[in-house]
User: Which sequence fits this backbone?
C-alpha cells in the first residue's frame, strides 16, 4: 500500500507542476524549487514498510466513550452517552443513568440525536487510524461513519485540524458531497474558547476564541503554542486554497484567509532565516510543525505556498540535523528531552529518511514501536542529501557552533545564546538563557556520547525536576568545546545588596504557573545528605524531598564504567573518557540496584530513572562540577589523563583549566539567570554571537535571510530575502 501511496503522490506532484524543475549546471542558478536529489528511496520504503497498516490497526473512538460502572457488578462500562441519559448494563441488562462523561466523553446532542460535542482532544490520536483505514479501503463504512459524527467534525483545533487537512488532501475527492458539505460547515463555524488537551487536563478558557485563521496582528495569528499556531494556520490556508469561493473558514472568506493565514506564515518563515524560531530544537513539537507544513507542501495548488512550506521544512530539518549525533539530538531544546536507548518522535522522523546512511546510529530502531506520523509516510517531500549528511556528521570534525535563539514569541532576536561542539565520538551543547518558558520542559545542556548500542546521555543540575532535563533557577554554567563548568548557588543577594525588583526582565518567569524566578529568593535550599535506604519506596520519598535540596546532581548512564580518582571521577565509554571533577568535597552516589526498579509498581515517578542512570550528588549551598569529554583516540589510557584538568573555587567564582587547554571561568550571579563568564580570557556573552545571525558553524550558517549548508554530500543555499525563497544547489 505504501508503494501505491508514493506513486499517487508522485502523480499529484506532476499534476501540480512540481516536476518542471531546473537542473544543475556548471554555474549554479537560484531555483524557485530545489531538484530531487534524495538517493535512498528504496531504503525509505523498507524502513517504512508496514507502518501505514500498523496505524490502521490501532483502535479509535474509545477515548471519547463515556465511562461508568455497572450497578450490579461494578465492572466498567463505556458508552456513547451524555450525562443524565439512560444506559443499559451489558452485563446484567439493568437500566441506569450515565454520570459525568469524563474529560473526553460526549457533552451534547443535536436536534437529530447525534453527539454534537466531545471534551478534550481525542482526535489527536483517533483520526490517524481512521485515515489509514480509508487509505486501505475508502469504502470502510465504520470509518466513514465515525468521520460524520457532528461532535468529531466540530473538532478543528490544532492537532485535529492537521489530520483533517491530511485527510482532505489524500482522500477528499473520495468521501462524497455529504461529507464535504458537513465538513465545510464545521470549518466555517469553528471558533473555540476551550484549550483542549490530549491528556485529562482542564485548562481555563481563553479570552479570545481560537480560530483556524487567527489574527494578523498577533505572532503566527495567535492561539496556543508555536506548533499549535502552525497547525491552525497551515490548515486554514490549505482549506482557503482548495475550498469553493463561497466557503468560509472560521467565518472568513477564502480570500481573507489567504491574506491573514498566508501572511503570518510567510512572515514566520522569513524570520526563521533571520533569528530562528521560538520553540527551538523541540524534540516533542518539531514533528507536529513539520507534518502541518507537509500538508501545504503536498496539497496546495499554489506554487508560492508550496515553496514557503518547503523552505520552512528544510529549515527545521537542517538546524535540527546540525545537533544530531549518533542519530540522537544533543544539547538545548526549548521543549523536550531525549533518551539514549531509543529514538524519540523527532529523531525517528529523521531516521526514516536518513537511517540508511553508513554509521548513522548505534541505537537499535524498531519503527513498529515508534511514533511515526501518517503525514511523513504519505508525503512526497524528501530531504536533500546534504541535510542527511549533516545529521550523519559527514562533515569535517570536530566543529564548534554558535546559535542565537529569539524569545518564544519571536519579537526579539538573540535572547538565548547556545554553544555546541561535535567530535567524532561525542557532542556537547548548552545555552545561556535570557528568560524562561515552561522550565520543566527546557533542556539547558546535555552531553551525548556514542555507546555500543545506544547514545549515553548526560545531564543534570539542582534537582528541582528530579531528572537530567529541566531548568532550575539555582544553576549557571559555561561551556567551551567538550568541557562545561557548572555551578549551583544561592539566589539571595549577597550581604549589602538589594534584590532587583524585576531582575533583568519582567518576563523571566518559570513554569508551572505557580512558580516564578522571584519566589526563588524567598529562602535558601535545605542541606543535602545521602539516602538512608535503597528501597524504591524510600527513594521516592527521598527524591521528592530533594527538589529543594542544596546540591548538584549529575545523571550518569549506567552503561558506563566509573573510575574514582583522588578528587574526581573518570567515566569510561567505548570511545570517550568523561572526566568529572566536583567543585567541593563530600560528593556521594545515588546508585541502588537497578533490578529493584524492574518490579517497582509505584507508577510513573522520576525515581524510576535509576533503572538507567546513577546519580552523582554534590552537596552544598555552592556546589557543581567541571565535566570534560575527551576522545580516547587522543588519550588511550587512564594514565594519559593524569595531572590534566584542574578546578579551583573562590567564593562564587570557579575556574577550570581544561584537558584541551581551554580556560573556563564562571562567576555565579545570585540575582541573574546568566553567570559572568570568561573563556580563554574573553568575556563569553559578546554581541557578535553567531556572527550576529542565527547559526554559525563550519557546515551551517543561518542569518540575514539566508541558510548556507556544506557537507561531504554537497550542499545548498536557501535565500529568503526576497518575495519567495530561492535554492542554489552545490554538488559534492
Assistant:
Amino acid at each position: 500500500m505504501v508503494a501505491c501511496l508514493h506513486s499517487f503522490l508522485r502523480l499529484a506532484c506532476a499534476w501540480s507542476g512540481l516536476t518542471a524543475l531546473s537542473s544543475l549546471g556548471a554555474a549554479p542558478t537560484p531555483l524557485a524549487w530545489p531538484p530531487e536529489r534524495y538517493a535512498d528511496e528504496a531504503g525509505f520504503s523498507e524502513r517504512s514498510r508496514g507502518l501505514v497498516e500498523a496505524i490502521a490497526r490501532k483502535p479509535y473512538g474509545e477515548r471519547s466513550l463515556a465511562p461508568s460502572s455497572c450497578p450490579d457488578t461494578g465492572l466498567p462500562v463505556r458508552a456513547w452517552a451524555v450525562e443524565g441519559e439512560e444506559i443499559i448494563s451489558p452485563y446484567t441488562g439493568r437500566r441506569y443513568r450515565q454520570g459525568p462523561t469524563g474529560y473526553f466523553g460526549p457533552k451534547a446532542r443535536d436536534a437529530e440525536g447525534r453527539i454534537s460535542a466531545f471534551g478534550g482532544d481525542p482526535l489527536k490520536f483517533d483520526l490517524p487510524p481512521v485515515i489509514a483505514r480509508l487509505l486501505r479501503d475508502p469504502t470502510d463504512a465504520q470509518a466513514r461513519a465515525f468521520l460524520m459524527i457532528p461532535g468529531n467534525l466540530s473538532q478543528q483545533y490544532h492537532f485535529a485540524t492537521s489530520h483533517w487537512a491530511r485527510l482532505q488532501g489524500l482522500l477528499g475527492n473520495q468521501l462524497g458531497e455529504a461529507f464535504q458539505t458537513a465538513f465545510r460547515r464545521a470549518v466555517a463555524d469553528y471558533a473555540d474558547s476551550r484549550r483542549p488537551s490530549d491528556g485529562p487536563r482542564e485548562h481555563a478558557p481563553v479570552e479570545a476564541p481560537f480560530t483556524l485563521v487567527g489574527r494578523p496582528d498577533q505572532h503566527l495569528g495567535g492561539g496556543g503554542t508555536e506548533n499549535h499556531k502552525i497547525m491552525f494556520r497551515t490548515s486554514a490556508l490549505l482549506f482557503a486554497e482548495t475550498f469553493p469561493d463561497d466557503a468560509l473558514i472560521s467565518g472568513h472568506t477564502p480570500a481573507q484567509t489567504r491574506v491573514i493565514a498566508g501572511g503570518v506564515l510567510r512572515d514566520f518563515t522569513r524570520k526563521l532565516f533571520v533569528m530562528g524560531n521560538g520553540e527551538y530544537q523541540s524534540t516533542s513539537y518539531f514533528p507536529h510543525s513539520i507534518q502541518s507544513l507537509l500538508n501545504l507542501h503536498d496539497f496546495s495548488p499554489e506554487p508560492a505556498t508550496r515553496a514557503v512550506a518547503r523552505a520552512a521544512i528544510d529549515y527545521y530539518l537542517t538546524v535540527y540535523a546540525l545537533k544530531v549525533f549518533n542519530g540522537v539530538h544533543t544539547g538545548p531544546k526549548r521543549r523536550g528531552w531525549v533518551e539514549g536507548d531509543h529514538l524519540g518522535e523527532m529523531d525517528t522522523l529523521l531516521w526514516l529518511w536518513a537511517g540508511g546512511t553508513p554509521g548513522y546510529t548505534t541505537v537499535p530502531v524498531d519503527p513498529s514501536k515508534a511514533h511515526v506520523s501518517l503525514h511523513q509516510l504519505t508525503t512526497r517531500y524528501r530531504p536533500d542529501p546534504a541535510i542527511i549528511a549533516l545529521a550523519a556528521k559527514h562533515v569535517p570534525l570536530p566543529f564548534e557552533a554558535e546559535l542565537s535563539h529569539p524569545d518564544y514569541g519571536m519579537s526579539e532576536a538573540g535572547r538565548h545564546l547556545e554553544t555546541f561542539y561535535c567530535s567524532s565520538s561525542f557532542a556537547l551543547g548548552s545555552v545561556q538563557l535570557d528568560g524562561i518558558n515552561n522550565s520543566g520542559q527546557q533542556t539547558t545542556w546535555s552531553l551525548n556520547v556514542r555507546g555500543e548500542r545506544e547514545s549515553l546521555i548526560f545531564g543534570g543540575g539542582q534537582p528541582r525536576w528530579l531528572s537530567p532535563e529541566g531548568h532550575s533557577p539555582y544553576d549557571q554554567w559555561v561551556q567551551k568545546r567538550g568541557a562545561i563548568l557548572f555551578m549551583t548557588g544561592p539566589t539571595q543577594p549577597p550581604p549589602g545588596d538589594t534584590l532587583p525588583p524585576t531582575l533583568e526582565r519582567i518576563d523571566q518567569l518559570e513554569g508551572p504557573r505557580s512558580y516564578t524566578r522571584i519566589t526563588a529568593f524567598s529562602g535558601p535550599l535545605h542541606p543535602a545528605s545521602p539516602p538512608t535506604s535503597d528501597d524504591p519506596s524510600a527513594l521516592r520519598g527521598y527524591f521528592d524531598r530533594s527538589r529543594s535540596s542544596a546540591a548538584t546532581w549529575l545523571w550518569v548512564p549506567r552503561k558506563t564504567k566509573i573510575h574514582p580518582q583522588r578528587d574526581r571521577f573518570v567515566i569510561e565509554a567505548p570511545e570517550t573518557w568523561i572526566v568529572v571533577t566536583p567543585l567541593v568535597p563530600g560528593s556521594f552516589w545515588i546508585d541502588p540496584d537497578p533490578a529493584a526498579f524492574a518490579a517497582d509498581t509505584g507508577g510513573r515517578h522520576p525515581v524510576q530513572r535509576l533503572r538507567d542512570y546513577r546519580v552523582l550528588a554534590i552537596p552544598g549551598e555552592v556546589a557543581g562540577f567541571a565535566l570534560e569529554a575527551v576522545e580516547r583516540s587522543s588519550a588511550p589510557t587512564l594514565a594519559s589523563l593524569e595531572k590534566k584538568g584542574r578546578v579551583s573555587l573562590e567564593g562564587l567564582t570557579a575556574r577550570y583549566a581544561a584537558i584541551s587547554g581551554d580556560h573556563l571561568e564562571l562567576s555565579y550571579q545570585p540575582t541573574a539567570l546568566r553567570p559572568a563568564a570568561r573563556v580563554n580570557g574573553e568575556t563569553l556573552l559578546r554581541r557578535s554571537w553567531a556572527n550576529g545571525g542565527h547559526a554559525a558553524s563550519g557546515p551551517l550558517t543561518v542569518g540575514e535571510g539566508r541558510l548556507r549548508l556544506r557537507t561531504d554530500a554537497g550542499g545548498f543555499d536557501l535565500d529568503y530575502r526576497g518575495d519567495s525563497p530561492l535554492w542554489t544547489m552545490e554538488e559534492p
Remarks:
- The longest strand covers residues 549-557.
- Residues 84 and 98 are 5 Å apart (CA to CA).
- The first helix runs from residue 2 to 15.
